[in-house]
Amino acid sequence: MSRDGLHDDGMHHDGMHRPHVNAALRVSLVSVAWTVCASAASIVVGIRSSTAVLVAFGAIGIVDAIGSIALCLHFRRGLRDDALSSTSERAAHLVVLVGLFSVGLGAIAVGAVRLAMGRAGEASNVGVVLAAVSLVALSVLSARKVQVARRVGSAALRSDGHLSGIGAMQAAVTLAGTVATRALGWTWADSVATTVIGCVAVALAIATWRVERRATLTGHP
Fold first, then answer.
1. What is the pTM for the complete model shown?
2. Are 135 and 168 in contact (CB under 8 A)?
3. Phi, psi angle pair for 214, to nearest 5°
4. CA angle at residue 199 from 195 to 205, to 5 degrees?
5. Beta partners for residue 12, in sequence order
6. In angstroms, rounded to a whole number, what is the distance separating the alpha carbons of residues 7 and 205?
7. Helix or strand or coil: residue 9?
8. Which of 10, 33, 104, 141 is the most buried (most CB within 10 A)?
9. How is 47-75 classified by DSSP, letter by letter?
10. Given CA atoms 76, 82, 83, 85 in this order, what sign does their dihedral have?
């Protein structure tokens, strides 16, 4: 054991594994950087091309970024104090779950309105490229967050990984909607898919919150 209370493998005496927490901080920082840039670009392109689906996609990214910022603060505090605070973990998890729930409700609303108005799901060429890149980036981020969350034992980071996964699915819907509209004339496809994704997000947020609440009340997951 070293003088600062760490074992040679980076494990603190209270069980916190610093390399894993560092990995959690890094993936959260990368998530913030990517989602802020990609979301801003999506919103700008969406407004200029009058493509609501891109604006909605950008809004999802902003919510994802807020959750990642909360996690960055949580993990930085843990590294500073040499221990992950359960209170800070719960606070960060609540932020992420509220974001996931909000994204779900937003997706349901956007999908339902677009379906009712018969709006097509076709994005501009720039929007298609942006959605394609986002699909890859968010899929990788989602998988990485879930992987690191398992190692560090963070339910908040795992839920944030699910939130990134919802963003990746929305990017896929943007691409599929454009293809369906241009090739098949299915103007309703992306609206239906967006609504379904929203329902999945809301259900996931509620189910996770219930598990978290039960664990808090009983002391067992």
1. 0.76
2. yes
3. -65, -40
4. 140
5. 6
6. 37
7. coil
8. 141
9. HHTT-HHHHHHHHHHHHHHHHHHHHHHHH
10. negative
Q: What is the pLDDT at residue 2?
A: 38
Q: Would you say 89 and 74 are in contact if contact means Cβ atoms under 8 Å apart?
A: yes
pLDDT in tens, 94-140: 888 888 888 788 878 878 887 787 766 556 688 788 889 999 999 99
Residues in the chain: 221
The structure tokens listed for 73 are: 């603060």
Distances from the Cα of 121 to the Cα of 105, 174, 177, 211, angstroms? 19, 7, 5, 36
Tokens 């927490």 identify what position?
Answer: 21
Looking only at Cα atoms, what is the longest distance across the chain? 68
Q: Read off the amino acid at residue 47.
A: I
Q: Look up tokens 């054991």; give the residue.
A: 1
Query: Could you give the count of Cα atoms lying within 13 Å of 164 in the half-sphere of its Cβ?
Result: 31
**SS3 breakdown of the chain: % helix, strand, coil, rounded to 5?**
80, 0, 15
**Rounded to whole angstroms, how far apart are CA atoms 211 and 69?**
23
